[in-house]
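Crash report, auto-generated. Payload:
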Amino acid sequence: MNQKVRLVVPEAPSPQAVAVTETRAVASGGIRLGVLDNSKGNADHLLKFIVDGVKAQLPVASVVSLRKDSVSLPAPDAILDQLAAESDYVITAMAD
Amino acid sequence: MSNLAQMLEASGASVEAEDDFDAINALMREKGWSDGLPVVPPTEARVAAMLEYCDRPWDQPIAKIPPRWGEATPLRLAANAVMAGCQPRYFPLYMLAIEAMCEEPLNLYGVQATTHLCAPLVIVNGPVARELDINCGHNAFGPGHQANASIGRAIRLALVNIGGAIPALGDMSTFGSPAKYSYLVAENEAESPWEPLHVERGLPREASAVTVIGAECPHNVNDHESLSPEGVLTTIAGTMGIAGVNDIYYQSHPLVIMGPEHAKMAAAGFSKSEAKKFIQQRAHVAVGKLSRENIDRRVRITFKERLPNPKPEDVIYAVQRPEDLLIAVIGGAGKHSAYVPTFGATKPVTRALKTADGKLAKSVEDFRRR
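Recovered output after restart:
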């Protein structure tokens, strides 16, 4: 039987997922939906299907759809600020 | 400064295993803490030896590595460096490379997670490259030198174990790349006719530095016939004019690696900046080489101002601006250079090796605990 040895763990754990604790103030006319198209081919089609599906199940007051210039780069602040100001919930999706 | 035994008492910081090489490697594979090759067991003693060359707090993150955004502490990095086969004196340069690639311009999140086959390429300059015997000559990108092989491997292990670049989970590369095992070289400053890469990028010559690029593997440029500066640069530019590389759609920063013989030939007629301009103007792909769908869905959008109605004879440049092209002199004898395309949505990062008090390091011994 070999002796035991202590090894240093090389792995970092995933940061703890932050639970949503804030209660969203949703206008009485329905939710304000934001859509972020990552500019990948067919992302716009996929997102349209999802928006249609949400509309079929929930009251939707408005939809603001914005598109990133590059799938490979983060959305610029202007897009994120507009989504934050004009949306209660944001949907983003990858497609190809 | 740091008490290793105390740190290892923290939850999840260490694991007990049977003191047997095969059993430990089986455990590493089971945990996913491996690149597939056997690793050196990261025992407390080996990790302690590695950390002798660290002048920062061992449990404080120096960076967060995407896509997991795992905290890269010297302690975890030291474990990965041991596993990769690094000598302890490599550790300061390894930490520097990790810090540099986590800077925002490199877009490591994209480099790690993309379906593209890029990997962070590290080019080392300055006296520490020579001190650590990092290969810059014959077969610089190949096997044979412990520093190149093990520091590059330690980087990959950290990208997987800390950053979560797990194939088909955090790393969605369609093909992967041999460069994802190890991708670190030094510039051959002694054989270069031009200023070194780190000097060109704003650092003092006496600095030791890394330049990190989100890069594909090198593609060879064979030119045994050119006898003029214009000739060899024309062949390089011609090699870069290909459809299907990411760089043509971005304001990208691709790399030209010039073998010393080609570099000396080019330098007979051009400064480095002049060589960049010459290449940039001639490195292009004709629109007619692209599919109709790519022209309609990408070229018309990306180049809507310059090419609102693209014609087959119009050109798209491999690099949009001369100053964005990187040139480094690497390799041994032989009439070869290489073109290294990039991820496109990435910018190179150059960072100097400094001690914790902010001074340029003269030697890796500056980091050694007294």
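Post-recovery validation: Chain B touches chain A through 49 residues (CB under 8 Å).
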